[in-house]
Design brief:
This protein is of the alpha+beta class. Helices cover about 30% and strands about 25% of the residues.
């Protein structure tokens, strides 16, 4: 039996859900859950070498690459080292899901142009407060992402023959290992 009161979505919304559903942070969400984010997806255009944010900036938004490429960099003394290039269909700035965080890398447009969906932190946390299941699903995805980062760090450390003390990565801010 067809439910006449069931929410239907436009083809634009369905395409947006398909796009978002391929992004790790959103992959566990239903269409109805992703629909809650639609009013807060602000499309912004960036030009080549335009900074999106710098290391140590407050984490105020999540960025989703619609078109183009973004270089994520870490500054070492007076130069930048590229950590990765983020392409269309991927998100960055994911630590915005956590309160009171700062950026740990800088981001700069590395293609002639880039279009990014920007999702403000305040809206994300408002959604989390009203929808605990969305919060749980997205934080679960974030933990999977961070576990992948840790695996990559260990793999890089092993292949570099220990050019740094990996134990330093596990010091708590009060110098207490956890």
């Amino acid at each position: 039996m067809i439910n006449p009161f069931k929410k239907t979505y436009t083809s634009r919304e369905l395409n947006l859900f398909k796009f978002l559903g391929k992004i790790k942070l959103f992959e566990k969400l239903s269409n109805a859950e992703m629909a809650i984010f639609i009013p807060f997806l602000f499309l912004r255009k960036y030009k080549l070498d335009e900074a999106i944010f710098f290391r140590n900036d407050p984490s105020h938004a999540l960025y989703i690459v619609k078109t183009g490429q973004i270089s994520l960099n870490i500054d070492i003394k007076d130069r930048f080292e590229v950590l990765t290039i983020v392409k269309a269909g991927a998100a960055f700035g994911d630590n915005v899901l956590l309160r009171n965080t700062q950026r740990i890398y800088s981001s700069v447009t590395s293609s002639e142009e880039a279009e990014l969906y920007v999702v403000p932190q305040v809206n994300i946390h408002d959604i989390f407060e009203e929808n605990i299941e969305i919060k749980a699903k997205m934080l679960h995805s974030l933990s999977e992402i961070y576990n992948g980062y840790t695996e990559n760090l260990f793999r890089a450390y092993k292949s570099s023959f220990g050019f740094f003390n990996l134990g330093d990565a596990y010091l708590h801010k009060d110098n207490i290992k956890f």
